[in-house]
Every structure is written in C-alpha cells, then in structure tokens.
Sequence to fold (580 residues):
Amino acid sequence: MDANSIPPLFTCETDPELVVSTLESLLFAVYEAFEVALPEVEQLIEREGFERTSAIFNHLVRCKAKTRLCAFDCQDEDGGANTLQIERVMLDGLALEYRGLRFRILKGAVLPTAQSTQRQRFYQQELPIWSPDMPAPSLRTLVILWDTDSTWQFSRLYLAAPKSGDARTAEAYWQYEIKHPAEGIAPPPSGPTGPDFGDLDNVRPLSAPLVVGKRE
Amino acid sequence: MIYGERIKQARELRGFTQTKLAELLKVTQSRIAQVEGEFRDVADSLIAEIAYRTELPLSYFSKAPENWLSAGSLLFRARTSISKREVTQSLRDAEHVFGLAYSMAKNLELPVSLRTINGDPKDAAIQMRALLGLSATVPIHNLIRILENAGIWVLAVPAMKGRDAFCCWAEADGRQIPVIVISPDCPGDRLAMNVAHELGHLVLHKNMLGRLSPELEKEAFAYGAELLMPEAGIRADLRPPISLTRVALLKPKWGVSIQALIRRSYDLNVISERQYRYLFMQLSSKGWRTTEPIPIVPEKPRLLKKMAEVLYGSPVPIDRIAADADMLPAEVSRVLGLYAEAEKKPDAAKSRVVAFPAPYRAGK
Fold:
C-alpha cells in the first residue's frame, strides 16, 4: 500500500514524544538491528581483512541492519497497513515504510544536507509551499539517524522530522534522541513471584517453651 | 563484671579505632587499651560513657563475649576490596545481629535441611534445586525466602551497606547454623547473585571458608550462575545474536543483572570472547557497569522478624526484644526494619463464603 494513501498519523507540530511512543516497536527493532549489526561488521572486517573506511563500514552496517530488519515482524493488530516495508538499500541509506510514514535511515548525529532532488523532496514533507495561516502540514517523512563513537561503536540513535534541505543546509522540525530500549523495559513486580513456601511456617515455638525475658 | 573483650567488640562494632574512642571519651588511647585488656578496672562513669558512645546498653558489657561467627568468605573479599577495619566492623555487626537472632532462636524450633554437596559446582547447583523442590528450568525470584525455609539464616546487617555479602557456618551451643550476611542496600539483581554465590560457598566449601582462593571463588560463581540461570532453562532464551537489548529483555524474567546474563552467554559459549568484550564496552559507555536500567526490587529477608513474631507476638514489642538481646530499642527497631513483614494474603476462608440469596439466610 502506498504510504500517501494512509491518513496521516501526525502533523509536523505533533509532540515528538508522542511520535516516538507511537513508533516504539519500530524504533526498538531499528535500535536492536544496529546494535547487532555493528559488532558483526567489526568481526567481518577483521576476518576478511577489509580496509577500514567509513564508506565500507557504513555500507556493511546498513546491509547487516537490513537483514535484521527484514526478519523483524512489525505487523500491528490493525493488519497489513502497519507492516514494515523495506524499500531498498541505497548507497547512502536505508528506506522504510511503516504506518503510512516513510523513513530514511542515515548515518550521523545531525540531519545531513540534501544533495539530491530526491532527498530534498523527502525533507519537504507534503507541502512545498506553506504559510502560517494554513493548517500544520502532515508529517509524512522521518529520518532515523544512527551514529558511532570514535571507536566505531554504536553510540546514538535519533528520530528527526525533516523540514527542508538543499546541497548546503538541512533543517528539521525537531530531532529526538531515542533511548536505549532497555531503558523502556518495565521492571518486574516486586514481591515473591516464585513458588509459595508459605510464611516460614516451620518456625515454631519449642514444644516446652522457655520463659522469655529476664527474670527479676 | 565488665568484660574488656566486650568493650573491644563494641568499639569495633561502631568502626572506632582505640584512638578515636579515646578522643570521644577524653581519655588516653592507652587507657582504652588497658580496659580492653582488663589490666585495669573500669570506673562506672567510664563504662557509662562507653555505653553512650557505642549506643549499647550497660548490660551488653557484663555479658560474656561470644564469637559465634567466623569471617568465612568475608576474608577473601577483604583481600580484594575492603579494609581490615571494615571487615572487622562488618563481622562485629553481623555477630550483633546474629546475637539478636540467636537470643530468640534458643526458644524456637528452626529445622536446618541444608547439607553440603561435594563435586562439580554445576551438578551441585542442579542437586540443590532438586533438594529445594524447585523445577530444573525456571527462574527463582524469591531465593532468600526459599533458603530461609531450608534453615539458612540470611541476615541483613546495617554495617554491610555498600558491600556485597559473606557467609559462614556459625557455631552456637554445639549447633552449626549456615549464615549468609547481606547488605541492606544492594540492588535486587546483584543481591540474588550474591546470595546464590554465598550459598555455593556454604555448600561446596564448608571447611575452607577461611582460606578461599580465586579457584574457589570461580566455583562459587559457577554454582550461583547455574542455580539462578540453569543451562536447561536459559539456553533457549540466549539465542544468538546476543545484543544488550536481548539480554535486557531477559533481566526481569531471570531476576539477575544484564552483566550476569552476558557472562552466562559467554560461559555457555553463546557468544565469543570478542563479543563478550564488546558488550561490556557498550555497558561501560552507557554507565551501566555501576547502575543498570530495569531496577529489580531487592528481596528482604524475613526470618528474624518471623522469629520475633512467633516468640513475642505481632506487633513485636521492641522494648522487650531489646532487653532480652542486650541492645537498645532504637537499634532493634532499625535492624528489624530491614526485614520483610508477613505477606498479606486474601483470607481463603472468607473468599470461599458464598452469600445466599436473602430468602435462604439462616433464621429467615
């Protein structure tokens, strides 16, 4: 199903926290995909003796992440419309469709510039011409940014709502750092949840109890 | 009679050096050494001041000293991370709490069903699960209660704050009592592993507790890991690829730390050494080596409070317990506060009562 045929979930003014929480299952999957992909690529580069360049490293990570995401079943209760669709692996990013939204997964800590007209269109959401008296534009496209630290370890994941961009600049409505999925996992309920051994019922007074307390 | 040894124990219990106590009492250090060595009589005013400074009743000092506990596995930890004074303070506080428990236990029936097991730590842990009536594959979320039920005294001790745990076999009136001493402020996931580890020492190293070695520590870790994360149960959960997210999802289920789950994955050859190191680097970069996400509420021991309830009734009379145990009421209250209350369960008899429709009620 074409993403544009699905009623928009959000506008560009929707609270980013709401967007993130609505897309939680997808972002969880993407996070884990990159978390798994990076060490696999590290191992691959070492095993095969590849030259370690950013281009090779990033490309291999995208391939590995795509493999993981293809195995991920992101279908929601609503049925097919919410199925995760992976469009293709491109030279500069991964493209996904999910719940009527189109995503690009790009490398970096900030929204990269839009060199191609295709990416410029992607950044502009659905209304290239918009004025303040018009309703807020629907949010149709989002960018997921993944980044590494100086030791090539996966460090951060962001979700950004792009606004505009050209060959030199890029602007976002907002950019939100995605917490590690572990930080959103609910702790188990407190109190015993295992087998019931009663309340230490084998602790009993002696059959001929001694006098408790000090004698005057 | 005032026992010099009791003065020394009281000082060590509060973590004072002789010099520090002398300063507090405005006497010389040699005077403290003399009264501890019983080379000089202690004036009433001095012993009253010592009692005040050490927050103990006068009766404490006229009771013959007991050495119920040995440092056990604490000695090994002492060599690695804590000072000798801290070891002594932890031991004295554990003895103090043990004394409180033992003052009650003398009048109670407390069956001990723990027995030592020789051999491979993994086999011993499997046997222990069977002895405790636990399935071979399921997580354990109430290990402390299960062990207390088997007669092990798990003592939460205030002076252990910020430390791990230690164990020993206490000697009291010819009885041998297995004791695990825990810190009251340990996160739940770490606490479970500490207790399982110390159980390993109790079961595997009964006669070697004072002379532990890295090899025996490894055995205790292997025992604890198999007890809490049995291979027969956890292998299905540890399917590759292993990521931080994957192990974090398992933390609430198994009640152990993310670090313990990564280590278990490595020990079961699910991940390579390289992956193991990578995951720990990830943990470090997120600051999770010291504080992990998904906090697990620590299980509180129950036995000490249960003894008090059985012996004295509920609510427990703090003043009477304090008088019987040669402690101040405030301290008894503080110690008992570290232990679990009885669980409030729905009244089974009441819930089985079915209300008859009005015309059929008795008497109508």
About this structure: Chain A has a mean pLDDT of 82. The beta strands of chain A are 10-11, 85-89, 94-98, 101-107, 138-139, 141-148, 154-165, 170-177, 204-205. The longest helix of chain A spans residues 24-48. The first strand of chain A starts at residue 10 and ends at 11.
